[in-house]
């Protein structure tokens, strides 16, 4: 039976969540982008927006657990859309206490009728009502601890095993659980235009509850609302950015008048942060491999009213052949990485990333650093950062880089609050999602010895 054609939004939240989940699965669409586009395109109101986000992310986040629960109740093969419908309905029944289970079942049956036919609707009804009667099986039935953790927290087994080897079982278990908790919305204050207090007052006028972070002073936490719709955003007073992503500019600590290279810059979150730190005085060359992404930097620069940023499409692995040798006071390499620290906001990463990808990223990261050294002045500072939690891409890249570059030395991480400074090990800082509720992130700072 062929599926009836549906558009993403017909006023029904569960139907829309199903369309998004299917697109993510079939077309490798990014869940966060598709969700955002759907909300904007159909101007979905705040109440439906919140539920749509919760069901879409929640179902994706718990996919392996939901499949484990569903398995004993499904006989034979089911179409992909029916499987996703069962997953998203069971997600509501198991994880969303405010939605009555029978309402989730009724909605599922109606969707099955609309998208398929009465036979499928009966099957969906049968499966979900059996689960209601019998309950789901316990993950304690799984004997192997790695497999149990993988199913219980819905992360691939290879990753669980890798993290357990690197960071130990308990630490990994905490991280996996934190990855399933929705992130708090954070913004960075543009200190060239305004103050934290002024932004807090503006947000309040817009009905947004917010408070200043006690980790990064220019960071504000939002407990409701949508930052991009606020007056503060329109005025260029804030940038939406996770608190961990505010670390590199603080660690690099660029001074007014410096000439800085941001080698992997798009969409410009850290470029603009550095320009703010430099109080719009000096120059920043923001480069990226993909020319079309430079437009995103330009848009941000314009909105924030910054004047010292120039962009250029340059492959960082060849940067030294395009840029003058030893001409920058500082270089930021915010490298392409596996992104294992941002699964809370991009749950699809859990199911698409493969272990082999991590090795090739390690080689690219080394090539980028190789070029960064060449264009850095003696005495200049280099900061290397990633939004991942992995010892090969992080500590491994730093150690391999130092082995071939005796002219570079790690310098202690400074210009951060004590609780972060204390966490560094051998001049490298790995932030885990469970540490401060921010993304998993890594940062290391080097100095080029003067000869
Ligand atoms: C982690 S993202 C950078 C985020 C950015 N620094 C920010 O804060 O908004 C990594 C970026 O590296 C870029 N990239 C990937 N390979 C590259 C290369 N060989 N040279 C330069 N940029 C590269 C990607 O296009 C991507 O925009």
TrEMBL record:
Localization: Cytoplasm
Is Transferase among the key words of this record?
yes
On the tree of life, the source organism's domain of life is Bacteria
GO terms, biological process: regulation of DNA-templated transcription
Primary location group: cytoplasm
Q: Which UniProt keywords apply?
A: Cytoplasm, Methyltransferase, RNA-binding, rRNA processing, S-adenosyl-L-methionine, Transferase
- Name the reaction it catalyses: cytidine(967) in 16S rRNA + S-adenosyl-L-methionine = 5-methylcytidine(967) in 16S rRNA + S-adenosyl-L-homocysteine + H(+)
UniProt: S-adenosyl-L-methionine binding residues: 264-270, 288, 315, 334
Is Iron-sulfur among this UniProt entry's keywords? Answer: no
SAM-dependent MTase RsmB/NOP-type domain residues are 175-449
Q: Which GO terms describe its molecular function?
A: RNA binding; rRNA methyltransferase activity
Its function? Specifically methylates the cytosine at position 967 (m5C967) of 16S rRNA.
The cross-references to PANTHER family, in alphabetical order and at most eight, read: NOP2 YEAST -RELATED NOL1/NOP2/FMU SUN DOMAIN-CONTAINING (PTHR22807), RIBOSOMAL RNA SMALL SUBUNIT METHYLTRANSFERASE B-RELATED (PTHR22807:SF53)
The protein's name:
16S rRNA (cytosine(967)-C(5))-methyltransferase
Q: Which source organism? A: Lysinibacillus composti
